[in-house]
Automatic annotation (TrEMBL):
Protein name: Terpene synthase
Record's compositionally biased regions (Basic and acidic residues): 343-355
Known cofactor(s): Mg(2+)
Organismal lineage: Eukaryota, Viridiplantae, Streptophyta, Embryophyta, Marchantiophyta
Keyword Transferase among record annotations: no
Length: 355
């Protein structure tokens, strides 16, 4: 259970066994590491995640925006980038419902943008899960080049963005097949050349995924201040970094990534124990969020309270919204028998393949 916010606890005092380090990180030289791994069970259960927020409601525009978003994806040829079975599973997963469960009272135009973005992002993620990232490093490097060309187009010498790009490329440099393509000076030179050659970013020839991303990006940043654009561009770079880290750690063999990472990195006796720690960690982070909100609101002038409250509403809506999508979407392999009449997930048994 997460600590009560009525207590005198502070953010730093909200601790679980996991966060206090009682489950110590394992090194590759740990003599007990193999014994722990071999004794863990392939089958494990994760208890319900019970949150404090109202059950998410689905935006009534979700179904309509699902059809529009899929048509938009097809217009760029993104569906042809995926194996037919993967594309069919993407359509069945109804990614727009993720946004629908989070944003049930948003402007229709903004909601449609979010649905397009989510559909594009999940389609890209599905391509990575299908093994393309590891098997086609040339395609992966092209995607990274295309995305960073889009992100740095208006400010090619931005030090923060170039630093983020360098970290990504340094990671790719560890893969021999990508070394010739993944060099900062080469990609930056290509970017500058493209800016000098073309009148507009819209004139640049990009791949299917990044053509869709470009349209969404240009619409998103149209009225944003420069600093906000830079921060959002950094967020997308961090997403690519996360993709690289996940591929390196998991080798694309595990879907339950957070449980698997905790099991791998900490001295857990089983996947079940790792799952319990993950749930505890989630409750701790939610408690931290609520406490931070209370402190920020009490310290801010009343004129800022409406903006703070609106931002916090969105943060809170993400928790039941993403939870509802994950327990109902076909993407995560839960059958109807795994969902109770109230929409809450029952205890679900997950099968993990051993490496």
């Amino acid at each position: 259970m997460a600590p009560s916010l009525d207590s005198d606890s502070t953010v730093l005092s909200i601790r679980s066994d996991f966060r206090e380090g009682r489950f110590l990180r394992q090194s590759k030289s740990d003599p007990n590491r193999d014994d722990i791994r071999s004794s863990s069970m392939n089958d494990y259960t994760v208890s319900d995640f019970q949150h404090r927020y109202p059950k998410a409601r689905l935006n009534p525009l979700a179904a309509q925006c699902h059809d529009i978003s899929n048509g938009w994806i097809v217009s760029f040829g993104i569906d042809k980038e995926l194996d037919p079975s993967v594309w069919q599973s993407c359509m069945a997963a109804k990614f727009c419902e993720l946004m629908g469960y989070i944003y049930d009272d948003i402007e229709p135009k903004d909601f449609l943008w979010l649905c397009k973005f989510t559909t594009c992002l999940f389609a890209f993620d599905s391509k990575l899960d299908d093994g393309e990232w590891a098997d086609r490093i040339d395609w992966s490097s092209d995607v990274i080049l295309d995305m960073n060309l889009v992100l740095l187009w208006n400010d090619p010498d931005n030090e923060r963005l170039l630093k983020g790009l360098k970290f990504i490329l340094d990671t790719l440099m560890e893969i021999e097949a990508s070394r010739k393509r993944a060099q900062l000076h080469t990609i930056h030179a290509d970017l500058v050349h493209a800016r000098n050659k073309f009148k507009s970013l819209l004139d640049v020839n990009l791949g299917a995924f990044m053509s869709g991303f470009r349209e969404l990006w240009l619409e998103y940043i149209e009225d944003l201040p420069a600093e906000c654009i830079t921060r959002q561009a950094e967020a997308y770079q961090q997403y690519i970094t996360g993709c690289l880290s996940e591929q390196e750690l998991l080798g694309n063999h595990h879907k339950n990534t957070l449980v698997y990472i905790v099991f791998q990195e900490h001295n857990c006796q089983s996947y079940t124990q790792a799952g319990e720690l993950v749930l505890e960690l989630l409750h701790d982070r939610i408690a931290e969020m609520e406490l931070a909100y209370e402190r920020l609101r009490s310290a801010a002038a009343p004129v800022f309270h409406p903006a703070i409250d609106l931002y916090m509403k969105t943060c809170r809506d993400w928790i039941p919204g993403t939870h509802e999508f994950h327990i109902t979407s076909s993407r995560y392999g839960l059958s109807n028998s795994s969902i109770s009449d109230t929409g809450k997930s029952k205890k679900v048994e997950h099968i993990i393949k051993r490496q």
